[in-house]
What we know:
This protein is of the alpha/beta class. It is 46% helix and 10% strand.
Amino acid sequence: MAYFKNVNKVNYEGPSTQNPFAFKYYNPEETMKNGQTMEEFLRFSVAYWHTFVGDGSDPFGQGTMVRPWNKFSGMDLAKARVEAGFELFEKLNVPFFCFHDVDIAPEGETLKETYDNLDEIVGMLKGYMKTSKTKLLWNTANMFTHPRWLHGAASSPNADVFAYAAAKVKKGLEVGKELGAENYVFWGGREGYETLLNTDMKLEQDNLARFFHMAKDYAQEIGFDAQFLIEPKPKEPTKHQYDFDVATGLAFLQSYDLTDHFKFNIEANHATLAGHSFEHELRVARINGMLGSVDANQGDTLLGWDTDEFPTDMYATTLAMYEILKNGGLGTGGLNFDAKLRRGSFEPDDLFHGHIAGMDSFAIGAKVAERLIEDKVFDSFVDERYSSYKEGIGLDIVEGKTDLHKLEKYALELGSIRNHSGRQEKLKGLLNQYLLEALTK
């Protein structure tokens, strides 16, 4: 059965095309300056949950999405979503997809029934993957939707819930290995607290670390060598989550001796909810050697929640690609479109429009970022700005050859101190210039 009858395979046709089902800037076969094709470097991925499970509902309204597979229910619905999924993957020509366990198969009345449902759908996915180029970028366990998670999962005050979460992750690691996942993600949607009045924060964080160590040990036991990723988020649904941002997550990993086994999966909208820019979170991860993968979306500055919009802000995609290129790429990670259509964009064709817009936006960002790096637009300015640390007292500071006594002596002998302009407006103007040149060529 064809679920997207209005769409043929989406191809690159260039900026002048009037075809709404064509890429304007993303050419998967185009070779980048590092020798990789765009497809190889950008590693685009479709998020199963928003694309095939999301119904357009929000806290104020029922679902609006019209989906041809929704005439089914239960396991029949799960199977129809697999069929629709690989049709979309094939027509978009994407190399990867991602899922939570409950996205691909419904939970049963018991954990055993849930396992059985998963096994059946995993077998179906495996069959489709044998003849498809699309691979599994990462999988994860949903431990935030069901009422059992109301107080958390690995951080729950209820040891039975902790055990249930452990069983879910154990199964998730087995599924990841069976399907060849290149990463495994932990998102602590309920791992945090609403009020400190009833919270033993130390015990909760200790238990969360114990959970991660158990997962690491089991992955090694079964030979699942995927990269483990933590996905930071500051709030929503929990008031204050333990993986608030990259810096908080890094401190946690360092405290519990987990830095050798985890990196970060950074989501743009989560960054802004934490009061940071997308590129800030990428930079913090990159300079600490912890940038693993990206959930590519954007938020709405006028709304205070996780809107998960398809990324179309070319400033954001350019500065993100600047960090990713400086990182040498994302390794086993990728650019996963953890993005959903607006409630008013309810037709199946809109799924293609959203992904095409996102892929084109990151392709533009990659092209502009390549030129910015090649021309040393920012690097040259930054090098000059910090040139005082390359000689004299500055070099002594950097090399640890001074102390407060020597610095005081030096300062007492100083005359007037002359600072230099940060030229922020000039640099933003240059960014505009490079973006416009890329779009008008």
